[in-house]
Specification:
InterPro entries: DNA_S_mod_dnd_assoc_4 (IPR023983). It comes from Phormidium yuhuli AB48. This is DNA phosphorothioation-associated protein 4. This protein has one domain. It is built from six helices and two strands, in the order βααβαααα. The chain has a two-stranded antiparallel ribbon with strand order 1-2.
Protein backbone atom coordinates (compact mmCIF):
# COMPACT_ATOMS: atom_id res chain seq x y z
CA UNK A 1 0.00 0.00 0.00
CA UNK A 2 1.28 3.45 -0.92
CA UNK A 3 1.09 5.73 2.11
CA UNK A 4 0.68 9.47 1.79
CA UNK A 5 1.34 12.24 4.29
CA UNK A 6 -1.63 14.56 4.59
CA UNK A 7 -2.03 18.20 5.60
CA UNK A 8 -4.85 19.43 7.83
CA UNK A 9 -7.28 21.81 6.09
CA UNK A 10 -6.68 24.59 8.61
CA UNK A 11 -2.94 24.54 7.80
CA UNK A 12 -3.27 24.36 3.98
CA UNK A 13 -2.87 28.11 3.38
CA UNK A 14 0.23 28.23 5.57
CA UNK A 15 1.81 25.24 3.80
CA UNK A 16 1.10 26.74 0.38
CA UNK A 17 2.61 30.06 1.47
CA UNK A 18 5.83 28.33 2.61
CA UNK A 19 6.38 26.73 -0.82
CA UNK A 20 8.87 28.49 -3.09
CA UNK A 21 7.36 28.97 -6.52
CA UNK A 22 9.46 30.77 -9.08
CA UNK A 23 12.31 33.19 -8.53
CA UNK A 24 10.46 36.14 -7.01
CA UNK A 25 9.36 34.73 -3.68
CA UNK A 26 10.34 34.88 -0.04
CA UNK A 27 9.02 31.40 0.64
CA UNK A 28 11.79 29.21 2.08
CA UNK A 29 10.98 25.63 1.04
CA UNK A 30 11.26 24.03 -2.42
CA UNK A 31 8.84 21.12 -1.79
CA UNK A 32 5.90 20.20 0.41
CA UNK A 33 7.96 17.30 1.77
CA UNK A 34 10.58 19.78 3.01
CA UNK A 35 7.91 21.89 4.71
CA UNK A 36 6.36 18.88 6.45
CA UNK A 37 9.73 17.48 7.53
CA UNK A 38 10.72 20.84 9.04
CA UNK A 39 7.34 21.14 10.77
CA UNK A 40 7.58 17.57 12.12
CA UNK A 41 11.04 18.24 13.55
CA UNK A 42 9.75 21.47 15.14
CA UNK A 43 6.73 19.64 16.54
CA UNK A 44 8.98 16.94 18.00
CA UNK A 45 11.32 19.53 19.53
CA UNK A 46 8.36 21.07 21.33
CA UNK A 47 6.72 17.67 22.03
CA UNK A 48 3.66 18.75 20.11
CA UNK A 49 1.57 16.23 18.24
CA UNK A 50 -1.80 17.09 16.82
CA UNK A 51 -3.98 14.60 14.92
CA UNK A 52 -5.25 15.54 11.46
CA UNK A 53 -8.90 16.49 11.92
CA UNK A 54 -9.80 17.08 8.29
CA UNK A 55 -7.23 16.46 5.56
CA UNK A 56 -6.87 18.53 2.41
CA UNK A 57 -7.58 16.59 -0.77
CA UNK A 58 -6.39 19.14 -3.30
CA UNK A 59 -3.57 21.64 -2.91
CA UNK A 60 -1.40 20.75 -1.07
CA UNK A 61 -2.31 17.22 -2.05
CA UNK A 62 -1.14 14.34 0.17
CA UNK A 63 2.56 13.69 -0.39
CA UNK A 64 3.68 10.16 -1.22
CA UNK A 65 5.93 8.51 1.32
CA UNK A 66 8.31 7.73 -1.56
CA UNK A 67 9.03 11.46 -1.92
CA UNK A 68 10.06 11.69 1.72
CA UNK A 69 12.28 8.63 1.30
CA UNK A 70 13.90 10.03 -1.87
CA UNK A 71 14.69 13.29 -0.04
CA UNK A 72 16.27 11.38 2.88
CA UNK A 73 13.51 12.00 5.42
CA UNK A 74 12.83 8.31 6.07
CA UNK A 75 15.26 8.40 9.02
CA UNK A 76 13.39 11.36 10.50
CA UNK A 77 10.09 9.50 10.16
CA UNK A 78 11.58 6.43 11.84
CA UNK A 79 13.21 8.46 14.59
CA UNK A 80 9.97 10.26 15.42
CA UNK A 81 8.09 6.95 15.48
CA UNK A 82 10.53 5.28 17.85
CA UNK A 83 10.61 8.40 20.02
CA UNK A 84 6.80 8.49 20.24
CA UNK A 85 6.19 4.79 20.84
CA UNK A 86 9.43 3.56 22.43
CA UNK A 87 8.76 0.26 20.66
CA UNK A 88 11.30 -1.29 18.30
CA UNK A 89 8.64 -3.10 16.25
CA UNK A 90 7.41 0.27 14.93
CA UNK A 91 10.48 0.17 12.65
CA UNK A 92 9.53 -3.11 10.98
CA UNK A 93 10.04 -2.80 7.21
CA UNK A 94 7.68 -5.71 6.49
CA UNK A 95 4.72 -4.76 8.70
CA UNK A 96 2.25 -2.56 6.78
CA UNK A 97 0.54 -1.55 10.04
CA UNK A 98 3.85 -0.31 11.45
CA UNK A 99 4.45 1.78 8.32
CA UNK A 100 0.95 3.25 8.53
CA UNK A 101 1.54 4.10 12.19
CA UNK A 102 4.88 5.77 11.36
CA UNK A 103 3.17 7.94 8.75
CA UNK A 104 0.38 8.80 11.19
CA UNK A 105 2.87 9.83 13.89
CA UNK A 106 4.83 11.89 11.37
CA UNK A 107 1.61 13.64 10.29
CA UNK A 108 0.79 14.43 13.92
CA UNK A 109 4.23 15.91 14.61
CA UNK A 110 4.08 17.89 11.35
CA UNK A 111 0.62 19.18 12.22
CA UNK A 112 1.83 20.17 15.69
CA UNK A 113 4.83 21.94 14.15
CA UNK A 114 2.57 23.74 11.68
CA UNK A 115 0.48 24.97 14.62
CA UNK A 116 3.65 26.45 16.12
CA UNK A 117 4.60 28.00 12.79
CA UNK A 118 1.13 29.54 12.41
CA UNK A 119 1.68 31.43 15.63
CA UNK A 120 5.31 32.32 14.91
CA UNK A 121 4.71 33.51 11.35
CA UNK A 122 1.51 35.44 11.98
CA UNK A 123 2.01 38.91 10.55
CA UNK A 124 5.41 38.13 9.03
CA UNK A 125 6.09 39.37 5.51
CA UNK A 126 9.33 37.53 4.81
CA UNK A 127 8.97 33.94 6.02
CA UNK A 128 12.60 33.09 5.28
CA UNK A 129 13.91 35.88 7.49
CA UNK A 130 11.45 35.05 10.25
CA UNK A 131 12.31 31.33 10.15
CA UNK A 132 15.97 32.24 10.39
CA UNK A 133 15.21 34.23 13.55
CA UNK A 134 13.21 31.29 14.91
CA UNK A 135 16.03 28.84 14.20
CA UNK A 136 18.60 31.15 15.75
CA UNK A 137 16.49 31.38 18.88
CA UNK A 138 15.94 27.59 18.95
CA UNK A 139 19.68 26.96 18.66
CA UNK A 140 20.64 29.56 21.28
CA UNK A 141 17.63 29.96 23.60
CA UNK A 142 19.62 31.38 26.53
CA UNK A 143 21.98 33.57 24.52
CA UNK A 144 21.20 37.23 24.96
CA UNK A 145 23.48 38.94 22.52
CA UNK A 146 23.39 42.68 23.02
CA UNK A 147 24.33 43.19 19.38
CA UNK A 148 21.32 41.37 17.95
CA UNK A 149 17.89 42.87 17.68
CA UNK A 150 14.94 40.46 17.81
CA UNK A 151 11.93 41.85 15.96
CA UNK A 152 9.69 39.01 17.21
CA UNK A 153 8.97 40.86 20.44
CA UNK A 154 6.98 43.40 18.41
CA UNK A 155 4.71 40.77 16.83
Amino acid sequence: MLHRVRVDKDKADLVRSLLRQGEMTTAPFPTYADILAFAAALGAKHKRRSPISSAVSREPSPVSLDIFISRGYDRLIQLLAIMATEEANILSPTDPEAEARRVELFEEYANGGLEILQGELRGAVDYTEHLLLLLTHECNPTRQDGMSFDLRRFL
